[in-house]
Amino acid sequence: MSDVSSTCASHSPQQKTPHKARNGVRTITCRSRCCPKCQAQARLRWVEAQQRDLLNTNYFHVVFTVPHELNPLALTSPTAFYDLLFAASSQTLLEVAADPQRMGAEIGLLSILHTWGSNLTLHPHIHCVVPGGGLSPDHQRWVSTCHPLFLLPIPVLRRVFRDKFLTGLEHLYNKNQLNCRGQAAAFQDRQWFSELLAQLRRDKWVVYAKPPFGGPEHVLRYLGRYTHRIAISNHRITTFDGEYVHFRWKDYAHGGKRGIMKLHAVEFLRRFFMHVLPKGFVAFAATGCSPTDSAP
After folding, report:
1. Where are the chain's structural domains?
2. Closest of 132, 136, 86, 45 to residue 282, by C-alpha
3. Which of 132, 138, 197, 215 is deepest in the core (most CB within 10 A)?
4. How high is the pLDDT of residue 10?
């Protein structure tokens, strides 16, 4: 097992995106969206399809992260949890951007779900790619950001996102649409859940916006890294000795220090499979006005 895609060796060879089996004899593919080799071609096709919708303007990178206290619900109720994460983050950007005191524009955005940290632990967050402007309310003109390096105020995005997500989570809880068993058993206690929500409403959530990407080509290059893969790419895995997997990682808690992490194969697989999404769940979405409705 020198890479994640070595598991493909047991699957059917009659597919369209080939790569070599471990024994090097047959050219096969598993077509799994978890396979970093099979998905390379799908990723390229998706990026090419998106190119026509990108504008000739700067783009911002906005990230919304949920507190780790809620991670158990992401494991037991992934569809409901991640749907809520998509909705809360996109609605936050649309609402704040439409405020006349902010940008006063109808924007569009691309959202990409990312559930892992560099060490493969659960870290649910949404990457949003947002153009530096949007359409006026009457769709007759382009409204640019007030400054080329500034999209929207982070404190406002943080507060609105927090309130939307927690309100949505409480609604799901009251409608019994969350699986509060197994790793999320603590959430069965309604009083404990209410106290947790109260605490999270007082906390500062992690939301940040990076400076503009540059042009559309930078956006496409970035999106290609996240749309059709999960958890780890083959080049990060350095060795497997039959018992332990060694892979490169960055310790962002200590300034992005690079190192080699050693995990037992069972623990490595446990972490990897936390990021396999429910069948049919799409990890990216376009929201808001279509960029082709107008042009800057």
Report:
1. 1-31, 40-231+275-290, 234-274
2. 86
3. 132
4. 38
